[in-house]
Design brief:
Low-confidence stretches: none
Radius of gyration: 17 Å
CATH topology of the largest domain: Fructose-1,6-Bisphosphatase, Chain A, domain 1
Number of strands: 14
Strand content: 25-35%
Order of helices and strands: HEEHEHEHEEEEHEEHEHEHEE
Mean pLDDT: 94
Number of helices: 8
CATH superfamily of the largest domain: Fructose-1,6-Bisphosphatase, subunit A, domain 1
Structural class: alpha+beta
CATH architecture of the largest domain: 2-Layer Sandwich
Length: about 270
């Protein structure tokens, strides 16, 4: 498991390097996919780089930018990688820095390993079931994975401001989310509401910066798999909002149900 985590971290960081080169060049080569979402040259290059590392593990990969894989083929996979080469492509195009590289290892439909890298800030979040969840800042010009594993700060972090804080999507604020925020104000009084792009929302809950992330709009498994692994390994609670059941992956339908993530500090 440790070797798999190392491979995932290396893949995320090397993809981050390539993404930053394109990000600073401004030459994005934007296309529009069939689902009306954008695709850039950076998405494609990141996917290829990550695949070059993960294929060495002999574990199948489900990627947003990979080929569609029928459920009949996927359903018997006990393990699989789920990746999003750039989570937050719209934020990448806006050049606001709120995009990430996401890599997760799933076993028996549950996340074991999660790696999220934020190229613009150099922040790396990583976790495994055995070791827990951590955050560290990376110098992409000079890094050693083993050293990063030792230097990471264990999540959740201490937080001075105890105001109940909700983090929500920058691009997908739904009426249901607004209703939920009002309900939390009735319970907690003062509530901070922060808008963020990509899986940074899940990272904020995992590190304790936010108490809660409600998501009442569509997401795909690759949008959340890595972040949910990090949250679970940071002892957060994650549940399907309608059924209250635990969240699972490699489903027949890769669209996620509405969900809520609660930080360790909110239990």
């Amino acid at each position: 498991m440790q070797n798999k985590l190392n491979v995932a971290i290396t893949g995320a960081l090397e993809a981050g390097k390539a993404i930053l080169e394109i990000y600073h060049s401004g030459e994005f080569d934007i296309e529009i996919k069939g689902d009306n979402s954008p695709l850039t040259r950076a998405d494609t290059i990141s996917h290829k780089l990550i695949m070059s590392f993960l294929t060495k593990t002999d574990i199948p990969v489900l990627s947003e930018e990979g080929k569609a894989i029928p459920y009949e083929e996927r359903k018997d996979w006990n393990q699989l990688w789920i990746i999003d080469p750039i989570d937050g492509t719209k934020e990448f195009i806006k050049r606001n820095g709120e995009f990430t590289v996401n890599i997760a290892l799933i076993e028996n439909q549950k996340p074991l390993i999660g790696v999220i890298f934020v190229p613009v800030t150099g922040e790396l979040y990583f976790s495994s079931k055995e070791m827990g969840a951590y955050k560290v800042t990376v110098d992409l010009d000079n890094y050693d994975v083993e050293t990063l594993l030792l230097k990471g700060d264990k999540l959740p972090l201490e937080r001075e401001d105890k105001t109940f804080t909700i983090v929500a999507s920058r691009s997908h604020m739904s009426p249901e989310t607004e209703t939920y925020v009002h309900e939390m104000r009735d319970i907690h009084g003062e509530v901070n509401l922060i808008s963020k792009g990509s899986s940074l929302k899940l990272c904020m809950v995992a590190e304790g910066t936010a108490n809660c992330y409600p998501r009442f709009a569509p997401t795909m498994e690759w949008d959340v798999a890595a972040g949910m692994a990090i949250c679970l390994n940071s002892k957060c609670s994650i549940f399907d909002y309608d059924t209250k059941h635990n969240f699972i992956f490699n489903k027949k339908n890769l669209i996620n149900p509405f969900f809520v993530v609660l930080s360790n500090k909110s239990k």
